[in-house]
Automatic annotation (TrEMBL):
Protein's name in the database: LD-carboxypeptidase
Protein family (similarity comment): Belongs to the peptidase S66 family.
Domain LD-carboxypeptidase N-terminal intervals: 13-133
InterPro entries the UniProt entry points to: Carboxypeptidase_A_C_sf, Class_I_gatase-like, LdcA_N, Peptidase_S66_N, Peptidase_S66C, S66_fam
Length: 313
């Protein structure tokens, strides 16, 4: 396992794309947003030669580009430009370079959605930490689609995060004094794609983070049945994020929550709900590959019992 770097400012950021094609005309606007926040931006690895599937390049070329960026000693943070599809295809290539990557200091990546596949490799195979947070191009629209401020990577990595409005979905979550484990996961579709394969991670002593979009409540129910049927998913707990659309009505919010609650009632581990991360207007950052602790307020004072739990990293 790599030894985490210390006293890193996390200001030298390379934008990178390993999934679906992007609009290059918008890149200067994105760079401007990052530079206004004090980041030094490198676009050397933001390349594309659009493939037949609409990815930024062939699998081999995308993998080579990513590995070169990970091995580049001048870069502290790799911030993924956008998600989409195709990152899962890179896992075989990354595994071929596992020993070389284990020999270098940890490098932080930032992104979500399709980037989940890359997080999984770095967290579970290299022991690196990473940030589940907004992709770079999310900051093109800071008024409707995305209301999440640009994360301060230095603040997150040095001081962690804490959220006090995490909802326990079953009795096990409500009654547990605290639950801890290494946080892993991300997009449910990408995590589920590894189930039963050689790339399925060992979930022992892990807390699993899951979110998705474009999934009907019936499809979500099927996804959750798969979790119930898995032979090996020995997690300490599960935290669900947003599954409904970006602009949901009350009925939609209630329906998706009801599906999650039905699963939680059948699951034999603590289950929590925090719909403030994922494909929504707010995508609160988490540190994947790092310890997370969840606990609920046990004080008897009725005014101090909010019904929520805290999450701390």
């Amino acid at each position: 396992m790599n030894i985490p770097t210390t006293n890193t400012p996390y200001k030298n950021v390379a934008l990178i794309a390993c999934s679906t094609q992007f609009d290059p005309s918008q890149v200067p606007q994105v760079v401007n947003v990052f530079e206004r926040h004090g980041y030094h931006i490198n676009c050397h690895y933001l390349q594309q030669n659009i493939s037949d599937f609409g990815y930024v390049d062939t699998d081999q070329a995308r993998a080579n580009n990513l590995i070169k960026a990970l091995l580049d000693p001048t870069i502290e943070v790799l911030w993924f430009y956008r998600g989409g599809g195709g990152a899962l295809n890179l896992l075989p290539y990354l595994h071929r370079y596992k020993q070389q990557l284990l020999a270098i200091p940890e490098k932080i990546i930032v992104g979500f959605s399709d980037v989940t596949a890359i997080h999984s490799f770095l967290n579970n195979e290299l022991g690196w930490r990473s940030i589940h947070g907004v992709n770079a191009n999310n900051h093109l629209d800071m008024s409707t689609v995305n209301l999440q401020p640009l994360p301060d990577i230095s603040e997150i990595m040095n001081n962690g995060v804490i959220y006090n409005n995490v909802l326990p979905l079953n009795t096990l979550a409500q009654q547990a004094p605290s639950i801890s484990g290494t946080l892993v996961g991300g997009n449910h579709t990408l995590v589920g794609a590894t189930f039963g394969t050689k790339y399925q991670p060992d979930f022992t002593d892990k807390v699993l983070l899951l979110e998705d979009i474009g999934v009907t409540f019936r499809q979500l129910d099927r996804y959750l049945q798969q979790l119930l049927f898995l032979n090996e998913c020995n997690v300490n707990a599960i935290i669900f994020g947003q599954y409904y659309s970006i602009d949901p009505n009350d009925e939609e919010r209630i329906m998706y929550k009801a599906v999650l609650q039905q699963f939680a009632a059948q699951y034999d581990k603590p289950v929590y709900y925090f719909p403030f991360f994922g494909h929504g207007k707010y995508n609160q950052p988490f540190i994947l590959g790092d310890t997370v602790t969840l606990g609920c307020n046990k004080e008897q004072n009725i005014f101090s019992d909010t019904g929520y739990c805290y999450l701390q990293q």
